[in-house]
Amino acid sequence: MPKLPSIPLTLGVLLGLLGFAPSAVIAETARPNFLVIVVDDQSPFDLQLYSPESKLETPNIDQLAAAGLTFDGAHQMGSWSGAVCTPSRHMIMSGRTVWHLPMPQKRNKNKKASEAPQPPNMAPANLAENTMAAIFNRAGYDTMRTCKKGNSYAAANAQFTVVRDATKRGGTEKSGSAWHGQQVLDYLQERESSKDEDPFLIYFGFSHPHDTRDGTPELLAKYGATNHSDRKTLPAANPKQPPLPINYLESHPFPHGHPGLRDEVAVSGVWERRDEQTIRNELGREFACSENIDIQIGKVLDRLQAMGQLDNTYVIYTSDHGMAIGRHGLQGKQNLYEHTWRVPFLIKGPGIPAGQRTLGNIYLLDIVPTLCDLAGIEAPETVEGKSFKPILNGDPNPIREVLYGVYCGGTKPGMRCVKKGDWKLIKYDTLDGAVHETQLFNLAANPHEYLPEHKRQAAQETDLAEAPEHAAKRKEMEALLLSEMQRLDDPYRLWDQPQ
Predict the structure, then answer these.
(1) Phi, psi of 262 (to 5 degrees)
(2) Taking residues 105-115, what's their average pLDDT?
(3) Strand partners for 35
(4) Are the C-beta atoms of residues 60 and 301 closer than 8 Å to each other?
(5) Are 405 and 77 contacting, i.e. CB atoms less than 8 angstroms apart?
(6) Whether domain 33-400 has CATH 3.40.720.10
(7) Does the structure show a pLDDT above 50 at 16?
């Protein structure tokens, strides 16, 4: 009697022998889809998820959080450019640390600062071939993106098989966030019409709430704001406008180290003003733009639900970095306070517990290795981030204990910070040595990083760097910062560090 061929007893074979249709097997083993939503310039503290007192309404983002996991310790590692979004988006696409990205080689205009070493290019020549879309293309995924143009990683963006990019910061359907939403809706319709069954990865980017924050008339009215454009006058005050941020100041107590920075002196509607009327109106514009984004997200999620794809799709919501808009007397993103260094971060999808929160201590550069892990794809050796899949599986431990931050887009060396546990240190070495400042915060007691200028009553609600009782903690954090700078190949040293 001839020997029968050996048949591996897989789940599909077993179910087939038991009379189940093959489609049941496919449904159970289908590769997940990914929808990665990235907004432009949004502090986590704009959202009620992070600041319950916020007036911003985002029901669809809230629903994502209710169905998934919210991270309280997500950060962007930092920047060597005034356009903080550039290195941030490089990190999102490549999974590499801030000093190991493709580095523009240009001389600093400030003569004394230019004597500092220029950052070397420590990125592999073939890095674009190992970025988000390229990795998933090789794994058989369909990849699509829509986002703003510019200040991004062009070589990585070009790897998506479908690219529909444009900068849309207007207040109409065609000139604002609805345009980006429509690109995703059209793409999903095309997939459905062609019966495309490949798994997909969609990078769903927006151009807002980055300025110019031209909101739709309806949402501007809701938040009492106007698209103010007359530099000679103040915007109209309106009781519907959001209140001032809790850590608002009329000016930062010392120069932040980037003279003439566009974000601090040239944002239309704000310019150099930090008065209450201007900041509240600008927050109203920002909230109008953010709620419009939420509306577009809701349309895409509804479409995925109607297609029967939502339950098998991991949805990430985040921003490329945070934003000041009046906090600490600042307007832009070129600082290392929590409102700007941290980012909102939510994820829902198959197997992720609903309505949970975690610290996480993740960077945006951890997105690529995590997506690979969830899809069962081996991440390239170029990836330096860490997969936070263990957290999604219920591990309560953060991915890392120590977090490092940098802003080096102005005069060098710039700003550095380090955080461990409840403690955070920020140092400033700017304006050719004219500014040497150190700040130390206990974030458990002072989560809003109040300064002496905020005139708080509690002893711990201030900068503790000069407090004698915290001298040992400051020394510990100084050593930790230097260690992280060395580990991450930071090419600069601050005035009081070994050169």
Answers:
(1) -55, -45
(2) 52
(3) 202, 315
(4) yes
(5) yes
(6) yes
(7) no
